[in-house]
Specification:
This protein is of the alpha+beta class. It is about 20% helix and about 20% strand. The protein contains 5 helices and 10 strands. The protein has helices at about 5-20, 130-135, 145-150, 160-165, 180-195; strands at about 25-30, 45-50, 50-55, 60-65, 70-75, 85-90, 90-95, 100-105, 230-235, 240-245. A 4-stranded antiparallel sheet has the order 1-6-7-5, with helices on one face. A 4-stranded antiparallel sheet has the order 2-3-4-8, with helices on one face. Strand 9 (about 230-235) and strand 10 form a beta hairpin. Helix 2 packs across helix 5. The radius of gyration is 20 Å and the shape is elongated. The chain starts with a helix and ends in a 6-residue tail after the last strand. InterPro entries: Endonuc_Nei2 (IPR054878), FPG_cat (IPR012319), FPG_N (IPR035937), H2TH_FPG (IPR015886), Nei2_N (IPR044090), Ribosomal_uS13-like_H2TH (IPR010979), Znf_DNA_glyclase/AP_lyase (IPR000214), Znf_FPG/IleRS (IPR010663). One of its GO terms (molecular function) is zinc ion binding. This is DNA-(apurinic or apyrimidinic site) lyase.
């Protein structure tokens, strides 16, 4: 599933392509909104909120969530059956493909779908103290579960979850109470996503060379970059876990 940095980058690309322009085509291929036509309306901005994306057009907001397979594509490539929405402004085309959520909202109410979210790691509302407090609300909760809970911090997905557990030296299933300094984890989470918000190839190690960008995610059976121990994995649940049994306790 695309994580907060991917959605932030998507919003930035849509902002560059559409902001200030008047729509010359609006084709929404979702039955509930099939008759909605925003042609002639001006695009004011595109913003991300955690893993949610809003395109503000006149008095409305187009709210989308990419879920597992979704994306927004900018360019005039052929449109196929996966398209859920097509927005054009003269020669510019933005196509929402395989979107998990797509709805058209009254702009005054576009905060409703994200009202439950915790502080946005890439947003103007970022509040590290509030994030640390939410993280430690249930001290016995598994760390990975807390990190993936968007009501704790908005924007973390499975990649960052595994990487953060590694850099904190804790197993994904260890309880939150085992963290010696929750504020440090919150700070590292912010640093990781902020460093990658405009980067095409995500990097958490500081080494951007191909094949060296991540500590543990997707590296099952390969040697740990710190100690050489083979990286373990668990694919039993709905989220794949990766960890080093030596570096993480």
């Amino acid at each position: 599933m695309p994580e907060g940095d991917t959605v932030f980058r998507t919003a930035a690309a849509l902002t560059t392509a559409l902001t200030g322009k008047t729509l010359t085509r609006c084709d929404i291929r979702v039955p509930r909104y099939a008759e909605v036509d925003l042609t002639g309306q001006r695009v004011d901005e595109a913003i991300s909120r955690g893993k949610h994306l809003f395109i503000r057009v006149g008095p409305t907001s187009i709210h989308s969530h990419l879920k597992m397979e979704g994306s927004w594509r900018i360019g005039r490539r052929p449109v196929d059956h996966r398209a859920r929405i097509i927005l054009e402004a003269s020669q510019i085309r933005a196509t929402g493909v395989d979107l998990g959520t797509l709805e058209v909202l009254d702009r005054r109410l576009d905060s409703v779908p994200v009202a439950h979210l915790g502080p946005d790691l890439l947003g103007e509302d970022w509040d590290p103290e509030a994030a640390a407090a939410r993280l430690t609300t249930d001290p016995q909760r598994p760390l990975a579960s807390a990190l993936l809970d968007q009501t704790v911090m908005a924007g973390i997905g499975n990649v960052y979850c595994n990487e953060l557990c590694f850099v904190m030296g804790r197993l994904p299933g260890s309880p939150v109470v085992d963290l010696s300094d929750p504020s440090r984890l919150v700070s590292r989470a912010r640093e990781m996503l902020w460093a990658n918000r405009l980067r095409g190839n995500r990097c958490t190690t500081g080494d951007t060379r191909p094949g060296r960008q991540l500590w543990v995610y997707g590296r099952a059976g390969l040697p740990c970059r710190r100690c050489g121990t083979a990286i373990s994995d668990d694919r039993a649940g709905d989220r794949i876990r990766f960890w080093c049994s030596t570096c993480q306790r």
